[in-house]
């Protein structure tokens, strides 16, 4: 039996009040809430238990998406995916078995037509002035060291800055251009 545990993306807008009233940060160290294109609005738990198939206790930080479940299960049961179906789904069977790295190195984050983000490896480019869709209270930004963004977008290295506090957009124009080209594709 294959068991996959995952979740919907990000806590709701009232999470900020839970932080203030109860010191409960349901987004953990991540920045953002549901619908935001920061990590807190998109990163979710993804746990797979498949006795005899997936290595017990293995933790992997390779990139995988819930949309990959379709192609992965199709591969596991030997089913063909009809042409024109699940174009964005990657077969991750070898990855979840611990036999290979993730088949995916890029993932697009989007919840509205005015903002897209691209995750590639450790990098995330937010192709918008802000990754926020939800209104972030000023007290929250101040308490957590989030400064106003003077740039047209945001760029973070998640391995170095999981909380997305150090916007590298102005420092690394070549990285911004390279990720923008991928996003446009």
Structure characterization notes:
A hairpin with a 2-residue loop joins strand 4 (115-120) and strand 5 (123-126). The mean pLDDT is 94. The protein has helices at residues 15-22, 68-77, 93-96, 138-144, 173-184; strands at residues 3-6, 46-49, 106-112, 115-120, 123-126, 154-157. A four-stranded antiparallel beta sheet has the order 3-4-5-6, covered by helices on one side. Strands 1-2 form a two-stranded antiparallel ribbon. It is an alpha+beta fold and 185 residues long. The longest helix is centred in the C-terminal third of the chain and has 12 residues, at 173-184.
TL;DR of this structure?
The protein has 185 residues and is α+β, with helices and mostly antiparallel strands. It has helices at residues 15-22, 68-77, 93-96, 138-144, 173-184; strands spanning 3-6, 46-49, 106-112, 115-120, 123-126, 154-157.
Task: List the topology elements.
Elements (H helix, E strand, L loop, with lengths): L2 E4 L8 H8 L23 E4 L18 H10 L15 H4 L9 E7 L2 E6 L2 E4 L11 H7 L9 E4 L15 H12 L1
Antiparallel strand pairs: 1-2, 3-4, 4-5, 5-6
Largest sheet: 4 strands, antiparallel
Characterize the overall form.
globular
Rg for CA atoms:
18 Å
User: What distance lies between the first and last C-alpha atoms, to the nearest angstrom?
Assistant: 38 Å
Tell me roughly what share of residues is in helical segments: 10-25%
Order of helices and strands: EHEHHEEEHEH
Q: Count every helix, treating DSSP H or I runs of 4 or more residues as helices.
A: 5
| Secondary structure tally: strands | 6
Main β-sheet, spatial strand arrangement: 3-4-5-6
- Percent strand equals 15-25%
Q: How much is the average pLDDT? A: 94
Q: Which class best fits the helix and strand makeup?
A: alpha+beta
What are the low-pLDDT stretches, counting only 5+ consecutive residues below 50? none
